[in-house]
């Protein structure tokens, strides 16, 4: 007997439908699990669906369908309920059959059949201008879990990181590093307040000095400041002062390029490689890995940015104003038009983003998923508008938004800013609470909802800590099976008919939900549903474990209970794995 009763119930209802209303034989049959156990194991609204086209009372139709329902050992009871629902209560053998299927399929239980759908998931993509912070960590955990979930559901998934290795932010990082380096040799200027301030910049400067001595320090303070506008007083916070600080920074960048000459790309590359390497190592330790690291600079080197902009221009979607080229973004639902090429000929970040998405389409993905911070919500219409303007289907691109996590330590909210250096790094968080707690806590809420990260809870070894609670369920199963010390083949042949208690049947029902839950979570881009499910499965198991003994004298009952426990363990391992969380055997 199949362990998927939903399929068999659908077949039974289809047979009844063919008898009652053959002209409605193609009607979709929906089966859901009632929220109240007293309403049975499954319910269908088929009679309610048919009432209007057949002009019949839905309760009468439900009775007719029940009268024509083929007999099956699957069904213990079927009855009409409410306005015309049909409730099904499964036979006990149908409920417990799932245990055998889990043990037979092992890690593949719940895995979807290959769909042939090629999906690209691009996530994190943080500017390599400083260490990853706890906000990036949530996007990393969400993207990795979503990718694994989509792959487990049957899709071909490419995990991608877009490296912003071109543009002004990298120039600012290179300048910040160089200025700190010059200070080691007595060439000091007021460090720009809008440059990168963190200790990691000083660390990079020290590495540069140790490796190359004064090779890049053969300049004077006067040369560096020549033609550079001064900084306004620090207490000034008005827009004019802000603009003056940006102009001062740009002048220093220009001076660095001029004075370093052919060495500037080397210093720029050093800073990039240091931060990119640090980020890759951090993510790898976090269990987040990518199939491709895509360089923004490559879009310029291959001419794709220029080609994309030219394509938009030839299609009539650009206009020139004040010497700059603007994309008619408002034609596609954006709040205002956007510059793609400045009056000085330089392309904007938006232009390279357009080119990057053109590249994604040209690589032949069936679905493209971008994972962005929630503060980029307004960016969606302009990117989709550019895709449509290029003659490509914008519906192929889907954007999942992730709210930054708010970290609380000792009741205090911690501020984060990569420019100021006042941030808590992902590495520090992982060191404090561990990878498992990080990965699990990050996906405990829907990605576009705010997340308060409770450090005290994440570190506690209590039932209130959800990751501890789930892992402890797994460890308990491992402990019992170790005490038994039998062979897996014995569990495969267990008499599952001995599983009779309400708690045991509830556990079987929870296990049976897993394959459908995987598909629904993948379709909704919702790995938090996996976390919720694991908490519920662990709760069901702990309740059973506390109420019943497994290693009883009755050999048949013992094997049946151990088989159920082993099936629970397998689904816990699979589910935790999709979330990037370990399943320890002891705790």
From TrEMBL:
It is an enzyme of class 6 (ligase). Its EC number is 6.1.1.19. It catalyses: tRNA(Arg) + L-arginine + ATP = L-arginyl-tRNA(Arg) + AMP + diphosphate. CDD domains: ArgRS_core. GO terms for biological process: arginyl-tRNA aminoacylation. Residues 7-90 form the Arginyl tRNA synthetase N-terminal domain. Coiled coil: none annotated. PROSITE patterns: AA_TRNA_LIGASE_I. Its main location: cytoplasm. Keywords: Aminoacyl-tRNA synthetase, ATP-binding, Cytoplasm, Ligase, Nucleotide-binding, Protein biosynthesis. Pfam families: Arg_tRNA_synt_N (PF03485), DALR_1 (PF05746), tRNA-synt_1d (PF00750). Residues 470-587 form the DALR anticodon binding domain. SMART domains: Arg_tRNA_synt_N, DALR_1. One of its GO terms (molecular function) is ATP binding. GO terms for cellular component: cytoplasm. It comes from the Bacteria. Belongs to the class-I aminoacyl-tRNA synthetase family. Monomer. This is Arginine--tRNA ligase.
